[in-house]
Design a protein that fits this description.
Elements: H1 6-25, H2 48-87, H3 95-115, H4 123-139, H5 143-165, E1 177-187, E2 191-194, E3 203-207, E4 212-219, E5 222-227, E6 232-236, E7 240-242
Antiparallel strand pairs: 1-4, 1-7, 2-3, 4-5, 5-6
Helix pairs in contact: 2-5, 3-4, 3-5, 4-5
Length: about 250
């Protein structure tokens, strides 16, 4: 083997050192890009039970608002009557007149309860409250106010009896719940009115959107309504809402 010359022994380590330095200074390979994940799509699944609860809650809200509006209107009227009576003492009803009016209202109220024993009537609660208010005013010797409230209760009881006689509400179905008072609603879309609370019942007639109806009761998510033409039946709660003329009152 040929011996390395002096300059070769010097050159070889130098070449190895240069190679090592070049390897250290060369740019490293860029890191592999992270895989791009596809966006996760969120799907909201509607629960039929949740929709039913929401529909029933909406109906109850409409019922409560109607009660408040009705009672507030009657309260305002009663207060105005009392103020007028106090301002004109000579026009106040006598004790005997108030007592007679209250007795007539009691008779009308009892007749309504008797007629609604099997069917139920949303007017019973309100008429009873008016009679209690009438008794309170009578005990305060405010005979004019007592007579006014008694006449209101009498008129309401008569209206309830007339409605029952006209057959707006027949015998209550299983699970059917009466509203505290009739709700003045309107259809929010074109929908079928059926003979019973469910899609398995025959379609009785169809109502266009915006048709005024009066609602008397509900069963699950179905509402028993009466239209202005006198026809009645059941419509889905999703197809009825507040009447425009009542909104904001």
């Amino acid at each position: 083997m040929e011996k390395m010359r002096p300059f070769q022994r010097f050159l070889v380590p130098l070449l190895f050192g240069a190679a090592a330095l070049a390897a250290a200074c060369s740019p490293s390979s860029p890191p592999a890009p992270s895989p791009v994940r596809a966006p996760v799509e969120t799907v909201t699944v509607k629960s039929p039970e949740a929709e039913q609860r929401a529909s029933r809650a909406e109906l109850r809200l409409l019922e409560r608002e109607a009660q408040i509006e009705e009672l507030q209107g009657r309260l305002d009227a009663a207060r105005q009557e009392v103020v007028r009576a106090m301002a004109k003492l000579q026009t106040l009803a006598s004790r005997a007149e108030a007592a007679s009016g209250m007795a007539e209202a009691e008779i009308a109220f009892d007749s309504l309860k008797s007629a609604a024993r099997q069917q139920g009537s949303p007017e019973i609660g309100e008429a009873g409250e008016l009679l209690r208010q009438s008794t309170t005013e009578f005990n305060k010797q405010n005979y004019g106010g007592a007579l006014y409230l008694a006449n209101e209760a009498k008129s309401l009881a008569a209206a309830g009896q007339e409605r029952l006689a006209n057959g707006d509400i027949g015998e209550l179905r299983s699970g059917e719940v009466l509203f505290a008072l009739p709700l003045h609603l309107q259809t929010t879309g074109r929908g079928n009115v059926r003979e019973g609370p469910g899609t398995n019942f025959k379609v009785a007639f169809t109502l266009d959107a915006g048709t005024p109806v009066v609602a008397y009761s509900y069963a699950d998510v179905w509402v028993r309504v009466s239209a202005e033409n006198g026809r009645s039946g059941w419509i889905s709660a999703t197809l009825v809402g507040r009447r425009q003329e009542h909104a904001g009152h």
